[in-house]
């Protein structure tokens, strides 16, 4: 996506809420579970390294999933998820730090805090194994620099997933020292999803970065397509949450097998 392109009203609202949301007064000290090790275990077990997302709702989905987050997370892990993503953004996604705490206590895989962090003090709201930093959000907000936030997160023990939507943003993430880069297939202007986004951006990432494809991955064929394009791992939300979570997780983490859904 062109950095000069206007972002969608829903995205603008998320960014505004993130700007207004406070942080915490103390500083967390995290002993993180390794995402790289979790991905390696999945590969050895014949599974696609996948971060599955516990997502009650979002601006791009209809309705709300009212299942118990711990039960959902446990089912995901039992059926192949290498790691989990848990929403802590309350206004637009129905998440909370308390939900993340409950999930992280119940599982033994890495847990990503999915939120829209703009300031260093927002890192201290809750312990997680990874935090998400979005290049475009930091640019739009004009708040803390990506380099500074990555350093601040690592000082606390977090691993960092840096999300990008274009080659320029990927290059900015790599230049800032990101070890995990997520390429989001959903553009921030029209909120359309196009898997060609990942395919066009992936060549900009070197071999020393773990590359994760995000958004729009709905079928085993999509999984195979993203892997063929160079994805080391995937982040999948709605396609897991919509329907039978256990069956969906198994089908998308072992896409060469036949599953009843």
TrEMBL record:
Keyword terms: Amino-acid biosynthesis, Aromatic amino acid biosynthesis, Decarboxylase, Lyase, Tryptophan biosynthesis
Top-level taxon of the source organism: Archaea
SUPFAM superfamilies (alphabetical): Ribulose-phoshate binding barrel
Record EC number: 4.1.1.48
Catalytic activity, reaction form: 1-(2-carboxyphenylamino)-1-deoxy-D-ribulose 5-phosphate + H(+) = (1S,2R)-1-C-(indol-3-yl)glycerol 3-phosphate + CO2 + H2O
Keyword Lyase applies: yes
Pathway where it operates: Amino-acid biosynthesis; L-tryptophan biosynthesis; L-tryptophan from chorismate: step 4/5
Entry-linked InterPro entries: Aldolase_TIM (IPR013785), Indglycph_syn_Halo_TrpC (IPR054875), Indole-3-glycerol_P_synth (IPR045186), Indole-3-glycerol_P_synth_dom (IPR013798), RibuloseP-bd_barrel (IPR011060)
Molecular function GO terms recorded: indole-3-glycerol-phosphate synthase activity; phosphoribosylanthranilate isomerase activity
Sequence ranges assigned to domain Indole-3-glycerol phosphate synthase in this UniProt record: 10-251
GO biological process terms, semicolon-separated: L-tryptophan biosynthetic process
Recorded family membership: Belongs to the TrpC family.
Protein name: Indole-3-glycerol phosphate synthase
Gene name in the database record: trpC
